[in-house]
């Protein structure tokens, strides 16, 4: 029963009493929200992580004396962003490294910022811009008068191989929410999921790309998203309306959206999920508890309401008469906490939320890479024991 690729994964204990994934294409008529899943090992051979940062394109907007330093850094794959603030030394920031990593001992000038602004082009109302044909994101800090006094140049990478961490879940056609702090790699994972769902699973995939982070800047989306289609959003406040437009106009089987952060976007997500469409999304946070306590986003996990129990029921449950309960099925059937780029905690959302509301510890699945970069699954692990 176990495919060859599963030998690369360490399986510990039986997970959640789950069934095998279907081998045929899923549709809304053949699946329901009441399901039992088996999170087995991926059915594809695991691939090594391959990074394509297209750093040369970003260097074209940076001062020339920084080029050599950035290109020849031994920890270049961990380069997260380049910071240029007026009157300060230009700085490189790396994933997992703290402290200042100055690129030179002379300060950034207004001419260098103006040159970068001209090379990038127009910034949107969210003060973000991109470099056409790349995945890099340039964000501006402005003075009170509107002039640019700082730039954050985020490195956009196309990474293949991350899909091994979640490939098995994609086979169920169920919605997945990725939760993590900024810079942990949520958007990078979205990009590869879009490619695999469109090219390997042959799904009709539409990306709602608010800041062009997933599909890159320009009217032609980056090749990293494969055959997925991309809808650009004129301004961040319109993300929820473009999500609904995607459903009504383009008949997607999968919608991918990054950075769900408003109540309108949460409502749009529920509307999409209720129409039987697979939804892949991200939100900022660290743990599932952050979403449960956030009134803006709690609808993503089913919403929380206060319920008053009768005396008999309260005694039977051995609890207070007023308790908190989940009020609806979750919008996202799975929630994945990205504690680190290579350490993920997978929740079956309804079960984890219900357990936490009752003051109990849910059983989760840890997905991580070992020292050889192979994916390891630790199943039926107590949530409070999950640490990096």
Detailed description of the structure:
The chain is α/β, with parallel strands linked by helices and 388 residues long. 22% of the residues lie in helices and 25% in strands. The protein has helices at residues 55-59, 67-71, 110-120, 167-170, 186-199, 239-250, 263-274, 288-292, 311-317, 349-357, and strands spanning 50-52, 79-85, 91-94, 128-130, 137-142, 148-154, 158-160, 176-180, 205-209, 229-232, 254-257, 278-284, 304-308, 322-326, 334-340, 343-348, 363-369, 375-382. A nine-stranded mixed β-sheet has the order 10-9-11-12-8-15-16-17-18, with helices on both faces. Strand 17 (363-369) and strand 18 (375-382) form a beta hairpin. Helix 6 packs parallel to helix 7. The longest helix is centred in the middle third of the chain and has 14 residues, at 186-199. The chain is globular and about 75 Å long. Mean pLDDT is 85; it is low at 1-20 and 23-44.
Number of helices: 10
Strand content: 15-25%
End-to-end Cα distance, whole Å, is 31 Å
Topology as H/E string?
EHHEEHEEEEHEHEEHEHEHEHEEEHEE
Rg (CA only): 22 Å
The major sheet is characterized as:
9 strands, mixed
């Amino acid at each position: 029963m176990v495919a060859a690729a599963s030998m690369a994964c360490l399986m510990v204990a039986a997970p959640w009493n789950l069934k095998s994934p279907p081998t045929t294409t899923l549709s809304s008529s053949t699946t329901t929200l009441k399901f039992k899943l088996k999170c087995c090992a991926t059915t594809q051979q695991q691939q090594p992580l391959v990074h394509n940062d297209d750093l040369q394109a970003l260097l074209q907007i940076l001062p020339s004396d920084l080029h050599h330093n950035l290109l020849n850094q031994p920890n270049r794959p961990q380069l997260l962003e380049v910071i240029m603030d007026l009157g300060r030394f230009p700085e490189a920031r790396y994933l997992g490294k703290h402290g200042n990593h100055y690129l030179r001992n002379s300060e950034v000038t207004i001419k260098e910022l103006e040159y970068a602004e001209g090379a990038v082009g127009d910034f949107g109302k969210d003060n973000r811009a991109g470099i056409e044909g790349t995945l890099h994101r340039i964000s501006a800090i402005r003075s009170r008068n509107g002039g640019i006094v700082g730039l954050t140049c985020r490195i956009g990478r196309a990474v293949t191989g991350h899909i091994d961490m979640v490939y098995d879940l994609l086979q169920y056609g169920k919605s997945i929410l990725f939760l993590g702090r900024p810079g942990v790699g949520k958007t990078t994972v979205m990009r590869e999921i879009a490619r695999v769902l469109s090219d390997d699973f042959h799904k009709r995939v539409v990306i709602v790309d608010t800041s062009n982070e997933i599909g890159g800047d320009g009217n032609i989306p980056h090749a990293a998203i494969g055959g997925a289609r991309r809808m650009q959003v004129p301004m961040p406040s319109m993300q929820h309306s473009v999500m609904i437009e995607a459903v009504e106009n383009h008949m997607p089987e999968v919608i991918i959206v990054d950075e769900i952060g408003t109540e309108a976007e949460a409502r749009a997500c529920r509307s999409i999920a209720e129409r039987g469409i697979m939804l892949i999304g991200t939100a900022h946070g660290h743990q599932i508890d952050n979403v449960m306590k956030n009134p803006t986003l709690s609808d993503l996990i089913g919403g929380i309401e206060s319920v008053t129990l009768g005396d008999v029921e309260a005694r039977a449950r051995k609890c207070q008469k007023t308790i908190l309960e989940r009020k609806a099925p979750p919008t996202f059937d799975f929630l994945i906490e990205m504690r680190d780029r290579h350490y993920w905690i997978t929740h079956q959302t309804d079960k984890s939320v219900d357990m936490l509301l009752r003051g109990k510890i849910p059983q989760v699945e840890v997905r991580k890479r070992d020292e050889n970069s192979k994916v390891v699954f630790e199943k039926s692990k107590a949530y409070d024991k999950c640490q990096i």
